[in-house]
Amino acid sequence: MTVADPSVLLPGLALPVETALTPQNGVVRIAFVASAVPRRCGIATFTADLTAAVKAADPAVRCIAAAIDEPNAARAYGPDVRWRIKQGDRESYRGAARAINESSADVVNLQHEFGIYGLWRDGVYEDHCAPLLEALHKPVITTLHTVLPKPEPQIRDVVRRIAEHSTRIVVMAETAAHLLRDVYGVTRPPVVIPHGMPAIVPRGRHRLKRQLGMEQRTILSTFGLVDPRKGLEYMIAAMPAVLARHPNVLYLIVGQTHPELLKKEGEHYRNELVAQIESANMADNVRFVNQYLTQREIVDYLLATDVYVTPYLDLNQITSGTLAYALGAGKAIVSTRYLHAAEALADGRGLLVDVRDSEGIGRAVLAILDDPVLKGELERRAYDYGKEMAWPNVGRRVLALTREVLAPDQNASNAPELAEEPGETDAPIHSA
């Protein structure tokens, strides 16, 4: 359904007579604009987790959402979704902005990824995010999930327009903040809030291996939606060298094929991987978990993992949710040098290798498996770094930023505290 005006709200939402300019009765009302679960999309999952974390930080907060639907999609959403945006329809984005203006929302939290806020037509990017922001009359916090280090001029201009029309910009890495300043010419510093992840206690590896029927195996794993950008074939190509010294190793490729890839090419890429595995006679050493996992299942597989590998090919990737999860689970990590990994795994928190370097991946994995002391040190450093990214901490920081935006004069003196270490939380944690 294309949202063209406030009258097309989903049932049950009453419009106030006037737009809310300040929190009503002290209650903050946030309108999230993003894709939404059950859509199988990284932004949708992230936004669901962020919404839950903000609510946990203050149960009085009220969250509603505008969900971005793929063309021709039909799905049922939860009661928080009040509006639907038809992806690829510029007027639908503007219509959602007008509807939000007339709602009781105090502030908008927008999660930006180029693929869900625009279209490429004949080499030209048609942006739908800035038109939405220009139509909004509410304060907006925009999180940029992708900040390219070498953008085309049109992409640089789009990001600058988004920054110009946002009250605050959030990025997930210091590298992204530097790029906005040095490459995009965005003079106002963004707020750096890392990609959230479940609060995890890194124990239970042997018990979880038993539950998975893998108690005698050393487990390597890669998680996430499967597509050629993951570079999985290079980890598979590294396996013979690993197996020569550790024949009990099992490499798990955990996740479904990316839905957009599935529409266009079916299981062509996965079938190529299967053929590669079978030709090397490694069917017992490389397996697929071809399903969309719940957060609990992801955590369990991670806790059972001995070495986590991200052999990704896109060096411009500025955020990786699965890398954040692996850090939070205290895993020894081997990764290519994409932007997020280069920053997160610095200072001895992981081993970095070159893109498309199967031999380098194999050497790094063997360095960890051959040296229990190194493995333990990598795990400790990863966990010490990753635990600060737990969703309870991220939720508190996003809520603090939201309140600052709503009352800038009152909270301006507290703004630097956003970068400080959050306090302890009583929120539930995942423990194996």
Q: Tags for this entry?
A:
alpha/beta, 17 strands, disordered N terminus, 18% strand, 6-stranded parallel sheet, globular
Summarize the structure in words.
The protein is an alpha/beta fold. Helix 2 runs parallel beside helix 3, helix 6 (205-211) packs across helix 10 and helix 7 crosses helix 13 (358-369). It has helices spanning 42-57, 90-101, 129-135, 153-164, 174-182, 205-211, 232-245, 259-265, 268-279, 295-304, 321-328, 339-344, 358-369, 372-386, 391-406, 408-411; strands spanning 29-34, 62-69, 81-86, 107-112, 118-121, 124-127, 140-144, 168-171, 191-192, 200-201, 218-223, 249-254, 286-289, 307-310, 332-336, 351-353, 430-431. 45% of the residues are buried. It has a 7-stranded parallel β-sheet with strand order 3-2-1-4-7-8-9, sandwiched between helices. A 6-stranded parallel β-sheet has the order 13-12-11-14-15-16, sandwiched between helices. Strands 5-6 form a two-stranded antiparallel sheet. Helices cover 39% and strands 18% of the residues.
Low-confidence stretches: 1-22, 409-432
Number of helices: 16
Q: Helicity, in percent? A: 25-40%
- Mean pLDDT comes to 89
Residues in β-strands, percent = 15-25%
Distance between the termini: 42 Å
Determine the structural class based on helices, strands and strand pairing. Answer: alpha/beta
What is the CA-based Rg, rounded? Answer: 22 Å
Strand order of the largest sheet: 3-2-1-4-7-8-9
Count every beta strand, where a strand is a DSSP E run of 2 or more residues: 17
Give a quick account of the main beta sheet: strands, pairing sense, barrel closure.
7 strands, parallel
* Shape by Cα distribution: globular
